[in-house]
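Translate sequence into structure tokens.
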Amino acid sequence: MEEKISTIKNWLGTGSINIFGLPMSGKDTQGIRLAETLEAKYLSSGMIIRAAEQERHKDYTKKGELAPTDVFYELVLPYFWRQDLADYPLVLSSIGRWSGEEDQIIATTSEAGHETKAAILLNISENDVEQRFRASKVLNDRGDRNDDKNLEIFHTRLKEFREKTLPVLQHYKALGLLVEVNGDQNRNAVFNEIVEKLYKKASESQS
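Result follows.
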């Protein structure tokens, strides 16, 4: 495993890996673990926007809809230019989820020295993530998030993914950047598959 991690680090440099998936698919869990493993910095558009909502007393995502593109650009894009992140690789959680935003993300990461090297998709069914959502409401382990208030809002988030984010993933696939991972496994199995597939991509780029 250590050799594979080393190969991935050398390939990644100060580049970025963007992780996508349905709500409750494990993006933050896997993204944070991957960032720690690669000694990278972790950026989540959801966390950035929710923090801005509290600070500005706005509700960009309260109904489960994605934040407007202009708001997303204003809040998220400046992070790529931060000096405290300049020398690190980045692991991103669903940054650029609305069709068309991916081109801006690819351009910005390249200009800022964090070239997009891969986009990971955690594949899992809507039925399975809904079961996870219901379990999380019982456990109350997601905090007081506006976009997790009820099942109706959750269904809106699923619809947003189908209509706005799936085209983004198709674009990454056409560019040869998409890495698909089975998200319907235990956490360690998902992480191990991410490492294996990133290692394969890194090895292929060096051959």
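Note: The mean pLDDT is 91.
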